[in-house]
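Hi R.,

As promised on Friday, here is the backbone we talked about, encoded as structure tokens. Could you run it through your design pipeline when you get a chance and send me back a sequence?
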């Protein structure tokens, strides 16, 4: 099957996720700059979540750019990824209410962990569909960064029950890890 509809639908969902997140942010009741302090936790949580959605959109784009076609299993795997990402606005809103509460911080991490697994599944199905010797497979390689991210998420989730702010630092660390550009797909497609 052609991948065009999958790309278009996914881009629309990514856009809606970001829109929902920004609409969840509330303005302060006062009109002074000092009043912005009260919305700082919500803003910082939004920034981290925006970066995460952006990272997933960027990597999703590269993954599909390196792919030539899709099948039914890939369509379902993509929906699985989008499902978990669609929960990011909910978790973002909950964490922004109290960054010191274990349950919201752990749930935020669990959603990131599930999205990471879903992305890994999508990636592996695309590789299987295109073959182990495909440019996609060669570009992705062993995906050490993806696997390391899953381990870091799991560790941060367990830490969230004792030290929620430290767990949040773990989530930020994973985002920073992915902000470092990964040029494997671009490099392999242009050789």
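Update: got your reply. Pasting your designed sequence below so it's all in one thread:
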């Amino acid at each position: 099957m052609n991948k065009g509809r999958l790309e278009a639908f996914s881009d629309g969902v990514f856009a809606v996720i970001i829109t929902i997140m920004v609409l969840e942010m509330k303005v302060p009741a006062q009109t002074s700059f000092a009043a912005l302090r009260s919305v700082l936790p919500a803003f910082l949580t939004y920034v981290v979540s925006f970066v995460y959605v952006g990272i997933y959109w960027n990597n999703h784009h590269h993954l599909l750019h390196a792919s030539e076609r899709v099948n039914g299993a890939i369509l379902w795997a993509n929906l699985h990824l989008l499902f978990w990402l669609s929960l990011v606005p909910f978790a973002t809103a909950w964490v922004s209410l109290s960054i010191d509460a274990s349950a919201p911080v752990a749930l935020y991490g669990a959603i990131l962990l599930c999205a990471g697994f879903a992305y890994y599944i999508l990636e592996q199905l695309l590789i299987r569909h295109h073959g182990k010797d495909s440019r996609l497979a060669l570009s992705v390689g062993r995906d050490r960064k993806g696997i390391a991210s899953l381990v870091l998420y799991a560790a941060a989730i367990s830490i969230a029950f004792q030290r929620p702010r430290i767990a949040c630092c773990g989530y930020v660390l994973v985002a920073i890890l992915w902000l470092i550009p990964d040029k494997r797909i671009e490099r392999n497609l242009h050789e």
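One thing I noticed while checking it: Residues 4-189 form one domain.

Thanks again,
M.
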